[in-house]
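By way of example, what follows is a protein record of this kind.
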Amino acid sequence: MLTRYMAGAVAARTGDEMSGPALLVAGLAVTGSPQTASWLLAGLTVSAAAGGPLLGVLLDRARRPGRLLACCLLGYASGLLLVLYGLGRVPDAALIGVAVVAGLLGPALTGGWTAQLPRVAGPERLSRATTLDSMSYNVAGLAGPAVVGLVASAGGGSATVLVCAALLVAALPAAWSLPPVRARSAAPGSPAPGSAPSGGAPSGGVPDGGAAGRGRAIWGELVEGFAVIWRNATLRRATAGSAVSCCGLAMLIVSAPVLGAELTGESGHGALLLAVTAASGLAANAMIAAWGRVRRWDRVLVWGTAVLGAGMALAAGAGAFWAAVVAAAAAGAGEGPQLTALFSVRHREAPARLRSQVFTTGASLKITSFAVGSALAGPLAAYSASSALVAGAALQAAAVVVLTAGRRDQASPAEAPR
């Protein structure tokens, strides 16, 4: 079951990573307008903040959340295909609207999928499975843009959207076959029923999708989900800190092509820097998976963010391309474990019946934060890549402050060596 889950996760997340660049390439190829292409990308990402929490509630209420995930995959792929079909045929405003609607489903491909992991892996394998799950993001981040580039070169801009949709559809069987929700007294990696993890709200022990959950209004569950994140100090810090960090990460991604052009004369070398970052993150997570023992994921989250910021600062001062490659590798060595630690903290702290909402809300905030960071990075990178990278490093420093504010260093039972 875990193998099937991982195969589906890699396919879905690679398709997700491809979707933005694919719309950019297709929009530019068909319309010739950079403005239209950029607005399509903005539409696809800006609506995530609204879609994430609602998707989380629906997943938490569903008896078969995997089937709802499958519907989200199909809806997201259909939205991309509708945009592709409409390019040059219908007004741009209508296509942007379609992209906004499709973007509402985006958090299902990230946080919504990860929230189902305890149901697949079980408590004894959750720590290792979480590391493998975060590695799927690294693989997708490495493969997605590369596939877009290869397909665009071989088959044109429109073909990139078709391949992206095919990957999303390929993940449907894995999503559909995810196990149903069963009543349980305590979820894997969660505190015992009635206890309050890290000062948060009681987790309850209510069966997922039970009569009590179905009887409450969706609005009430949305409020409850946000309240859990807010009242649980650990979840609050992790959610806020990761959002700030993601805003800074956008500075690295936007400025990489500019840095490559400044150092070598070719912006294409910036894609190599991003590939080095993704590969380094994948290698770091592979080392964690091989080691298999992490006592304090909260510390890993802080240090991963700090190393990511240090790598960005090094890149800002790089005077040669080899130095930029070293800086990109350092950034990836922080970004990979940071993501694994974030997932581990959420699995540990989120109440079982609200786990999907915690994950999708966190994912939606990160996606929206990334969109804001991208918008801010554009003018900075146009001035110089170093200015954008310095701003990104400063945001990582701010994220470290958020992650450590009021934190008490103590090992959770869920973090004991396995």
Summary: Residues 184-215, 409-418 have pLDDT under 50 and may be disordered.
